[in-house]
């Protein structure tokens, strides 16, 4: 598939629904480092919700997979919606829509470790005052804003496209 006859790429619609956990303890936040095509970026532990899986259960599962910790979800912070276009191969472009369910969580067990064979390569507790120095995804800033302000709508701002 190389695009249409006019040279325009074929546009493929993608929807990804994912769940994430914000774990803050003693001035530090638990993060995982995502390894993607654009490099390595820190993000919240979390990820895609499997078909039929409850978002809360997905957040708990993903935190354990990416960090080694068992967590208890304490509250729903909000839902973020993000839409962007990405290349997906020669003549193919994705209209990617991400719906991200964001919870607060508390570590109740386990031992910090790095994920093996997954989408992340490190897990760490990072000082909150060091966040601005990290190569990171926007989800961290959105989640911290939700945690600070607790908007009744569960949204930081109007839908971004």
Highlighted features:
single chain; 161 residues; alpha+beta; Nucleoside Triphosphate Pyrophosphohydrolase; four-stranded mixed beta sheet; four-stranded antiparallel beta sheet
Describe the structure.
This protein is an alpha+beta fold and 161 residues long. The protein has a single domain, classed as Nucleoside Triphosphate Pyrophosphohydrolase, CATH 3.90.79.10. The protein is built from two helices and eight strands, in the order E-E-E-E-E-H-E-E-E-H. The protein has helices spanning 55-67, 138-149; strands spanning 10-22, 24-25, 28-36, 39-43, 46-48, 69-89, 92-110, 120-127.
Helix and strand content put the structural class at alpha+beta
- At CATH's second level, what is the architecture? Alpha-Beta Complex
Number of strands: 8
CATH structural class: Alpha Beta
Radius of gyration: 17 Å
CATH topology: Nucleoside Triphosphate Pyrophosphohydrolase
Q: Number of helical runs?
A: 2
User: What is the chain-wise order of helices and strands?
Assistant: EEEEEHEEEH
Largest sheet: 4 strands, mixed
Low-confidence stretches: none
CATH superfamily: Nucleoside Triphosphate Pyrophosphohydrolase
Share of β-strand residues: over 45%
Strand order of the largest sheet: 5-1-7-6
Measured as a percent range, the helix fraction is: 10-25%
Q: How many domains would you count in the coordinates? A: 1
**Could you say which overall geometry the principal axes of the C-alpha atoms support?**
globular
């Amino acid at each position: 598939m190389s695009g249409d006859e006019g040279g325009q790429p074929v546009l493929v619609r993608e929807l990804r629904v994912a769940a994430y956990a914000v774990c803050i303890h003693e001035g530090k936040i638990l993060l995982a480092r995502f390894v993607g095509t654009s490099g390595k970026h820190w993000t919240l532990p979390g990820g895609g919700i499997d078909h039929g899986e409850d978002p809360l259960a997905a957040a708990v599962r993903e935190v354990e997979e990416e960090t080694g910790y068992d967590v208890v979800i304490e509250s729903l912070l909000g839902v973020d919606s993000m839409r962007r276009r990405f290349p997906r191969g020669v003549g193919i472009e994705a209209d990617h829509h991400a719906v991200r369910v964001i919870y607060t969580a508390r570590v109740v067990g386990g031992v910090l470790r790095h994920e093996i064979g997954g989408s992340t390569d490190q897990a760490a507790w990072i000082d909150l005052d060091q966040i601005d120095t990290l190569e990171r995804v926007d989800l961290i800033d959105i989640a911290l804003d939700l945690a600070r302000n607790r908007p009744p709508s569960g949204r930081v701002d109007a839908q971004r496209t």
